[in-house]
Amino acid sequence: MAAQDSVLTQIARPYASALFDIANSSNSIPQVEAGLSAIASLATTSQDFSRFLRSPVINADQKATAIQAILSKGNADTTVTNFVNVVARNGRLFALPAIITAFRERAAEARGEVTADVTSAVALTAAQVSALADTLKAKIGKSVTLNQHVDPSLIGGLVVKVGSQMIDSSLKTKLTAMKIAMKEVG
C-alpha cells in the first residue's frame, strides 16, 4: 500500500503543481479548490464514480468523454474542467484524488496553513470541527485545514496527524494497549 501511495504521489505532484501555477497566475485558487473539492466529494460519496476513476477496463478516450459530460452537467470551473480533461486524456484519472490532495496541500501552504488529517469513529459535527481547528491553531500557531476521515473501527475518540506528529486518542488503541498489558500480567 505504501508503494502504491508513493507512485500516486509521484504522479500527482507534477499535475497538482501545474494546476496550482495556472490557478495562481489567474488568481483563481479558491474557485479551483472549490471545484476540486466537489469532485473529491463525489469520489468519496459515489462508489460508482470512484470505480469509474480507477477502472482499467474503460479506455482514456471513453473516460475523457464521460468526465466531460459530468463536469458540464455540474457547471464546473473552466480551469478545473480543462485540467480534468487533460488528466483524463493522459489516462491518469485513477490518480485524480491524489492530485486533488496535493493541490489542496499546495494551496494551504501558500496561505500559510497546515493540513491535519483527522480520523474519527463517526463524522464530526461542524461545532466539533471548529473546536478542533481552534485547538490545533492554538497549539501550532498557524491556521489548520482539516481533512476528515471516518473509521468506525476506532470505536470512539480521534486520531489526529499534523505533519510528522500523531495524536491517537482512539478507544481502539487504548483497548489494544490494555490487551497487551493484560497479557504481560497474566
How is this fold's topology laid out?
Elements: H1 2-25, H2 29-45, H3 47-54, H4 60-73, H5 78-89, H6 96-110, E1 113-120, H7 126-140, E2 143-150, E3 158-162, E4 165-168, H8 171-185
Parallel strand pairs: 1-2
Antiparallel strand pairs: 1-3, 3-4
Helix pairs in contact: 1-5, 1-6, 2-3, 2-6, 4-5
Explain what the structure shows:
Helix 4 (60-73) packs antiparallel against helix 5. The protein has a 4-stranded mixed beta sheet with strand order 2-1-3-4, sandwiched between helices. The chain is built from 8 helices and 4 strands; from the N terminus they run ααααααβαβββα. It is 65% helix and 13% strand. The model has no long low-confidence stretch (mean pLDDT 89). With 186 residues, the protein is of the alpha+beta class. The protein has 2 domains: 2-108, Peroxidase, domain 1, CATH 1.10.520.20; 113-185, no CATH class.
CA gyration radius, whole angstroms: 19 Å
| Percent helix range | 55-70%
Main beta sheet: 4 strands, mixed
Structural class per helix/strand content? Answer: alpha+beta
Q: How far is it from the N-terminal to the C-terminal residue, by CA? A: 36 Å
Sheet with most strands: strand arrangement: 2-1-3-4
| The first-level CATH class name of the largest domain | Mainly Alpha
